[in-house]
C-alpha cells in the first residue's frame, strides 16, 4: 500500500522539474514526522511534511498568502500561498486541550500576509510544561503533483531558511 509519508526524505528526489522552498515558520530543529509521538501525524493522516522542535515563541508566514482559517483554540492554521499551495501549521500535538490559552493570533481568517510577517505569538514554556515537548507540524495535503519533499533536518531560525523544499513532477 502507498504511504504518502514516503514522499518525505532528507535528500532531494531526482528529476524534479520545479522546486519550491517553504521557509521555517518557527525557530527550532527540523525533523521527520515519524519522530512525532502521534500516530495520526506520523502516518500522514493530516498531510505530509516536517516537524520542528520549537525553540521560539513566534509563528511567521513562510510565504506571501492568505490566512484561510484558524481553529477556535488557536493552535492550528491553514494558509494559502498566492500560487495556490495550501499549508496546515499545527503548534503542538495536543495543544487543543489548552482551549486557546497561550496563543495570540495576529490576523483573522481571510486576511492577507507577507512572507516573514508575524502570524501568531505563543507561550512555548506553557506548551513544554503541559506536554513535555512542543512540535510545530508543517503539513501539505496536496501531494498528487509532488515527486518528493526534501526535509532540511537541522536547527534554523524562523523565516531565514527553508524547513522543507517541495519538488514537483
TrEMBL record:
<keyword id="KW-0598">Phosphotransferase system</keyword>
<keyword id="KW-0418">Kinase</keyword>
<dbReference type="InterPro" id="IPR050890">
    <property type="entry name" value="PTS_EIIA_component"/>
</dbReference>
<dbReference type="InterPro" id="IPR001127">
    <property type="entry name" value="PTS_EIIA_1_perm"/>
</dbReference>
<keyword id="KW-0762">Sugar transport</keyword>
<keyword id="KW-0813">Transport</keyword>
<dbReference type="InterPro" id="IPR011055">
    <property type="entry name" value="Dup_hybrid_motif"/>
</dbReference>
<dbReference type="Pfam" id="PF00358">
    <property type="entry name" value="PTS_EIIA_1"/>
</dbReference>
<protein>
    <recommendedName>
        <fullName>PTS system glucose-specific EIIA component</fullName>
    </recommendedName>
</protein>
<keyword id="KW-0808">Transferase</keyword>
<feature type="domain" description="PTS EIIA type-1">
    <location>
        <begin position="38"/>
        <end position="142"/>
    </location>
</feature>
Amino acid at each position: 500500500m502507498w504511504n504518502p509519508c514516503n514522499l518525505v526524505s532528507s535528500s532531494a528526489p531526482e528529476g524534479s522539474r520545479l522546486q519550491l522552498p517553504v521557509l521555517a515558520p518557527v525557530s527550532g530543529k527540523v525533523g521527520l514526522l515519524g519522530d512525532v509521538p502521534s500516530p495520526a501525524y506520523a502516518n500522514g493522516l493530516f498531510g505530509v511534511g516536517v516537524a520542528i522542535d520549537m525553540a521560539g515563541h513566534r509563528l511567521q508566514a513562510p510565504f506571501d498568502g492568505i490566512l484561510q482559517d484558524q481553529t477556535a483554540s488557536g493552535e492550528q492554521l491553514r494558509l494559502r500561498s498566492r500560487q495556490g499551495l495550501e499549508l496546515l501549521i499545527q503548534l503542538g500535538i495536543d495543544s487543543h486541550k489548552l482551549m486557546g490559552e497561550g496563543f495570540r493570533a495576529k490576523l483573522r481568517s481571510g486576511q492577507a500576509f507577507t512572507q516573514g510577517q508575524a502570524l501568531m505569538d505563543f507561550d512555548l514554556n506553557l506548551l513544554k510544561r503541559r506536554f513535555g515537548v512542543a512540535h510545530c507540524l508543517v503539513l501539505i495535503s496536496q501531494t498528487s503533483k509532488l515527486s518528493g519533499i526534501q526535509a532540511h533536518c537541522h536547527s534554523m531560525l524562523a523565516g531565514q531558511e527553508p524547513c522543507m523544499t517541495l519538488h514537483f513532477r
